[in-house]
């Protein structure tokens, strides 16, 4: 299992376990993380699962695809150095301990 921590805009933290191969969005939904709306259910057609990935983990992620980059333009206060859509982050053992901050609001 992979441990991931979601940090709310208010500083609250939810730590959960996920199986390799799950997306970060699926882990957030399974843990009922507030602020991860995921309105499209992971189809990469909205930006309501936007997160800020901790710098220690950002470079371990697969690069964002063109569709994700385009959708991040619609995210709330995107940060080019840390913003990703959680539906596009596939969890692996290399990401064990990942920390993702949920923005103050989505979209």
TrEMBL record:
The keyword Metal-binding applies. CDD domains: fer2. PROSITE patterns: 2FE2S_FER_2, ADX. It comes from the Bacteria. Its cofactor is [2Fe-2S] cluster. Residues 1-106 form the 2Fe-2S ferredoxin-type domain. One of its GO terms (molecular function) is 2 iron, 2 sulfur cluster binding. GO terms for biological process: P450-containing electron transport chain. Keywords: 2Fe-2S, Iron, Iron-sulfur, Metal-binding. PANTHER family: FERREDOXIN-2, MITOCHONDRIAL, FERREDOXIN/ADRENODOXIN. Belongs to the adrenodoxin/putidaredoxin family. This is 2Fe-2S ferredoxin-type domain-containing protein. It comes from Thioclava pacifica DSM 10166.
């Amino acid at each position: 299992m992979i441990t991931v921590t979601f940090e709310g805009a208010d500083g609250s933290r939810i730590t959960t376990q996920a199986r390799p191969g799950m997306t970060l969005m699926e882990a957030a939904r399974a843990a009922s993380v507030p602020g991860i709306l995921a309105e499209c259910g992971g189809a990469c057609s909205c930006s309501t699962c936007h997160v800020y990935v901790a710098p220690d983990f950002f470079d371990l992620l697969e690069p964002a695809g063109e569709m994700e980059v385009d959708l991040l333009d619609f995210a709330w206060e995107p940060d080019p150095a840390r913003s990703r859509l959680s539906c596009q982050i596939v969890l692996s053992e290399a990401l064990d301990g990942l920390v993702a901050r949920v923005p103050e609001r989505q979209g």
